[in-house]
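Reminder: ligand-aware prediction takes two inputs, not one.
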Amino acid sequence: MGPHQRPGVPGESRPTEPMQPTDRRLANAIRALAMDAVEAANSGHPGMPMGMADAATALFTRHLKFDAADPRWPDRDRFILSAGHGSMLLYALLYLTGYERPTLEDIKHFRQLGSPTAGHPENFELPGVEVTTGPLGQGLAMAVGMAIAERHLNAVYGDDLVDHRTFVVAGDGCLMEGVNHEAVGLAGHLKLGRLIVLWDDNHITIDGSTDLSRNEDVVARHQAAQWHTCECDGLNADDVDRAISEALADPRPSLIRCRTIIGYGAPHKQGTAATHGSALGHDEVEAARRELGLEDKDFYVPDDVLTAWRDVGKKGAAAHSEWKQRLDSSSAKSEFLVRMAGKVDDSWLKPYIDKLLSDLKPVATRKASEMALEAINVAIPATIGGSADLTGSNNTKTKALEPLTADNYGGRYIYYGIREFGMSAAMNGMALHGGVIPYGGTFLVFTDYARPAIRLSALQNARVIYVMTHDSIGLGEDGPTHQPIEHLQSLRAMPQLEVYRPADAVETAECWALALQSDEPSILALTRQNLTPVRTESSNENLCARGAYRLKAAGNARKVIILATGSEVEIALGVAERLESQGIGTDVVSMPCTERFDAQPADYRENILPDVSNREILRVSIEAGTTFGWERYTGLHGLRVGIDRFGVSAPAKDAYDYFGLTPEKISARITEFMKTRGIQ
Ligand SMILES: Cc1ncc(C[n+]2csc(CCOP(=O)(O)OP(=O)(O)O)c2C)c(N)n1
Ligand SMILES: [Mg+2]
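Here is what comes back for the chain with magnesium ion:
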């Protein structure tokens, strides 16, 4: 008999029926709700919740520290359903343990418009859903970030206030994904012993047996990454309990291999991919109810079972109130609460900018970012910086930051290694854990490696700040592999993400302030090369907050409006100078953040970009990247200056000249364009 065939009848885990419902009966309530919800929606994934119901029961009834009455208790254990397709497992647990939502009604409306029981768990729909999962592998990778945040805050505030664990349920898919290797490597290196992963080892994925696509020794791989591993019968709550206890006792991160059967309890379909992602069908649901000893009723949970589950949901109340008492008597109370609420002040900004203005000099915006961070990291102790092995290039480490290591979780700088995706996913977990504000760097071109996590930052409203340097052909000799072309625009296309491309040191500081205040993720696109200051006078306002502003107004009658970002603002000023000398009045608009500009009231946008034809006032965009999308601001009949091919390996100055991105070449192009279009 193979490891995935087990003897015994699913309904009977113990020979006698005690007064308390058996663990198996508790688990069967999860199975019943999962089957019924998927059946009602005729959509969803019953197999995973049915296979992992016993393991989840062991975890929730015997180990997980939580209080269903307060899903936001800062010292709760975090539970991450990395196998997000099994969302009904989580919804069932939240309902059964007595969270305010989802209600049984919500579960009956699984996957329907407006119901918080979305297809995959979404953190913004339900308190109790810690992170949004579904893109496989990322839940576990975010859990690594949660575990980092927990250890860091523990180092800062001590056991009295921060002392919890991070539990993950992951499937075969989560462990196959590339990001898993990054996350597991990082967790092993940082010795995140409070991270415990329960692997739903059911040998099945969508295409069928895992034998179709995997022969690696998953456990040995984790061991090689310095994890503790153990195994259990995932269908036996006592055995899962034993394995969890073993994992808890080990100082390393743990992988618990739970041997399970997908769709357990559905007699004709269990153990097959047929249960993975579709409703079991009426007959099979009936057969499963018989098999599991359930009543033949939809969405039915016996009273004693529901009562037992509700008691589980209340069990943490005592620990919670003890924690509250410790908080009340802690001298760090108000600081801790402010920090967990994520509030930051920007009192650092004004003095910092005043200092900049008193001593203006050319500086790369990556360097300007470091300068701003020197002030920020002192003023805001919640920041945790890092880089994916480009610290010296991204300029992300300020002087006072010590490395966060297994020996010093109190450090605030993480050497993520060459793990852009793992870093970004970890930052999501850190941000969603709360109490810390993560920022991390790599080259802008490698947002491609981080992109799935950036998308989840956006979807989840996670305040993660991506410090993406080397933001154009201006990086020079490293050439086309490293020169971003389509990146800025493709990132701007992403909802709920703010992309900033500051033009000098003052704008860089303003953009940092906005990113820190935001409840969305931000990308700071920063130059490698030095830029001449364009903001030379002090302003009472954070001008970048409007997304775009008139940096220079036309001297002559306005005929041209140039929109430029980042390093091209300086070029735009040079273009304007040449045009003005020919009597062509030219506005220069610096546009550090298109998303913010789009959100301005109509009259502000109208003031910056008046609704007149390009024959009256020609709009020109200048950005050292794709021109794709700039017609949004120039109109179809405007002029878009950019680069619509891959870059070149050459010194920055030569690359700019080669692509015609110089004041001479652009001004000539504009006057030529005006002539051929008959613009006077
Ligand atoms: C990144 C990503 N790729 C593909 C999918 C689609 N998908 C959802 S579940 C799944 C199979 C996962 O297998 P496993 O983790 O073993 O789950 P089980 O079938 O055992 O429930 C796939 C390919 C996804 N959700 N995320
Ligand atoms: Mg599987």
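The longest strand covers residues 195-201. The chain has a mean pLDDT of 96. We will return to this case in the review session.
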